[in-house]
Design goal:
Two copies of one chain form a homodimer. By secondary structure, chain A is an alpha+beta fold. Chain A folds into two domains: 110 residues, no CATH class; 209 residues, Cyclophilin (Beta Barrel), CATH 2.40.100.10. Chain A has five helices and 18 strands. Chain A has a nine-stranded antiparallel sheet with strand order 15-5-6-13-12-14-4-3-16. Chain A has a five-stranded antiparallel sheet with strand order 7-11-10-9-8, with no helix packed on it. Chain A is globular and about 75 Å long. Chains A and B meet through β5, β6 and α4 of A and β5, β6 and α4 of B.
Chain lengths: 323, 323
């Protein structure tokens, strides 16, 4: 069984909760329309053209090949008292830093540490608040991976221009940017991006302190921080934490911090303990259709279509697989 | 006494909390640098040029005329159990809708209602979850104010291009957009924007149900909703609420909703009960300097400067006045 998950920010701001039966009926009709769009046969010539599909229709009609499972050997489970935050790492975009983080995770470095900073409209950050846990020898410094050569990775460009980078789009379902002149690419600071906290020294970000973006995309951080991946599920467990009231959103008192139960690689756990997720492939025709549906919202609620979408407003759908 | 307040999203992602003494010393030096920048005398010719000021320096050196008090006759106090959310309305940008809301507030319409929807990375919405409270006669329908003629209002343009609108900038310290060809302007859906929930009928948004943006700017809503103002203080009381788990972030159970103690106009309260705030004037030279300091971050931490800022990343500082 498949169940559609988060990242579906609904268009409507209806005054009240939509009636479930009516909504279901609309969805059923929309699904039929969507399957018509993806069917091979042409529409009957006399029929009026069906309305263009919305995101839900497009996803309902997506072939299995439009999805890929998360890479469980590079997926972290950040276990908080309120539940599991699932972060997919992007080793292609920050190979050494991702390797560092995975080494720390295998050594159970993060277990018992804490979310120590939550700054409104910015980041939730976790690590060792008292700096009591020794970072292993040889891991104290790490050359930054603010950018990487794009190499063999597929870069799917968005059709719209961006103010922060010459080109923006997606690499393996991660929001990214690139500079064709230099051949360099980097992950972009969109909502849910996970980056590596550092001091002024660019080599001071080892991966022992991480943050997730919980506000409007702070794109000015692009190319200033090593971004290592993105929260694929459970960002709301970080974004709804109480904000720290000390400087920069740090918590003034230890008791205010949220303890980290553990951080594990998905592949370390027995199959029964894993959360099986799939993410939409951003190099799929389904994703191309989805981007267009979001650039110009066709549902009746919209009076005005943007004709544009900024990188961090593009949803990258995730779904859970149930046996 | 003046105390600087929120909207100062710090640049750094330091591994640990900055030492307070050191931070204070840096701030003191920076303030001196900033006052030098704003002083009339030229720098001594032999001295190396001082580093360009950052946001804190610019604000520290701002003249009193760069600030204006909130318009208390158009400022709402949304009182929640956790504290006060302060919303400044923009009657120039939505005159009839703002008047409607203020009439409802004077009638104590919102008292005892609830925050009924919190959708992650989107909006927190409040109103009458059971639709039991009658909206007064003649207020059930209201022509939408998605855009307004700009008229005599000062529009301060940002130097950078925007994907969603021909021009973006600020009107009276509210993020806004305009189309010079049509002469129309509208408030933009940045973090903290307050808009009017509506059904598919564009005239169904009366102001009896409102939302605040608590995620990445959903600019596709621009010109589709009447935006009436912005949260000037206390957005974290909305953005840190638990997310609703029903469709579109609605709460499935009444007990999950956050009750609204009351909504009052600041001007209705005795002076001692008001929160006296000032907002930076976006038509001031101080604001121009601030925008440039944010387009190109000069602090040592930054390795790469964006040379760009998007509308919703521009901070609009607010400060509290204490007697």
């Amino acid at each position: 069984m498949l169940r559609m998950m988060h990242e579906q920010r609904e268009a409507g701001l209806a005054r009240t909760r939509p009636r479930t039966a009516a909504a279901a009926a609309v969805a059923a009709i929309a699904a039929l329309v969507a399957s018509a769009i993806f069917a091979a046969e042409p529409a009957a010539p006399a029929a009026p053209p069906p309305p263009p599909p919305g995101m839900a229709d497009i996803l309902a009609a997506a072939p299995a090949s439009a999805w890929r499972p998360l890479d469980e050997s590079h997926t972290l489970y950040l276990e908080l008292p309120a539940g599991r935050v699932i972060i997919e790492l992007a080793p292609a975009m920050a190979p050494r830093t991702v390797a560092n983080i995975e080494t720390l995770v295998r050594q159970k470095y993060f277990d018992g540490l804490a979310v120590l900073r939550v700054q409104d409209n910015f980041v939730a950050q976790w690590g060792d608040p008292e700096e009591r846990h020794k970072i292993p020898e040889g891991m104290q410094k790490l050359p930054p991976e603010f950018t990487v050569p794009l190499g063999a990775n597929v870069f799917t460009s968005l059709p719209d221009r961006d103010g922060y980078a010459p080109q923006v789009g997606f690499v393996d379902s991660f929001p990214a940017a690139r500079d064709p002149a230099s051949g360099l690419a980097w992950l972009a600071h969109c909502y849910g991006a996970v980056g590596v906290g550092r001091d002024t020294d660019p080599a001071s970000g080892t991966g022992s302190e991480l943050y997730a973006v919980i506000g409007h995309a702070p794109r000015q951080l692009d190319r200033n921080v090593t971004v290592v991946g993105r929260v694929r599920q459970g960002i709301e467990l970080l974004s709804s934490l109480p904000r720290g009231t000390a400087e920069m959103g740090f918590y003034g008192k230890a008791a205010e911090r949220t303890p980290i139960t553990s951080v594990r690689l998905a592949s370390e756990l027995p199959a029964a303990s894993r959360t099986r997720l799939e993410v939409l492939r951003t190099d799929s025709p389904t994703f191309t259709a989805l981007v267009e549906a979001r650039r110009n919202r066709r549902d009746e609620w919209y009076q005005s279509r943007a004709g544009y979408i900024d990188l961090c407003n593009v949803p990258v759908p995730v779904r859970a697989l149930h046996d």
